[in-house]
């Protein structure tokens, strides 16, 4: 491979990595991660239930998972699993699986209200 092509490939790889990082939630901040998870899950539900109200679904998820306020979330159980496994799964899961209630372990009990859980 010519030297110029190696540099171009490296540049493209770095650029793509940086761009992907801009779209992933900041797992160092549980509140930001909570908001991202609620948003991705609401989009999955709306995708599978056409005609449903996105904002109402988000509010319902927020009530269920964070007692109505992501500021109450103090810790993410497994940030790597959440980002690498759960969020991509939610974005691509079939509607029949989503509505069945089945979910991978990376999507279970991720938003914790205290720092000493798990």
Describe the fold and architecture.
By secondary structure, the chain is mainly alpha-helical. It has helices at 3-23, 30-48, 54-66, 79-92, 95-100; strands at residues 75-76, 111-112. The radius of gyration is 17 Å and the shape is globular.
How far do the termini sit from each other?
49 Å
How many H/I helical runs? Answer: 5
**Main sheet: strands, sense, barrel:** 2 strands, antiparallel
Q: Give the overall shape, derived from the CA principal axes.
A: globular
Which assembly state applies to the chains in this document?
single chain
- Overall pLDDT level: 80
Uncertain parts: 13-26
| Order of strands in the sheet with most strands | 1-2
Structure class = mainly alpha
Strand content: under 5%
Q: How many E strands? A: 2
Question: How helical, in percent, are the residues?
Answer: 55-70%
List the secondary-structure elements in sequence, H or E.
HHHEHHE
* Rounded radius of gyration (Å): 17 Å
Distinctive features:
mainly alpha; two-stranded antiparallel ribbon; globular; 118 residues
Please provide a brief summary of the model.
This protein has helices at 3-23, 30-48, 54-66, 79-92, 95-100, and strands at 75-76, 111-112. It is mainly α.
Question: Secondary-structure map with pairings?
Answer:
Blueprint: H1 3-23, H2 30-48, H3 54-66, E1 75-76, H4 79-92, H5 95-100, E2 111-112
Antiparallel strand pairs: 1-2
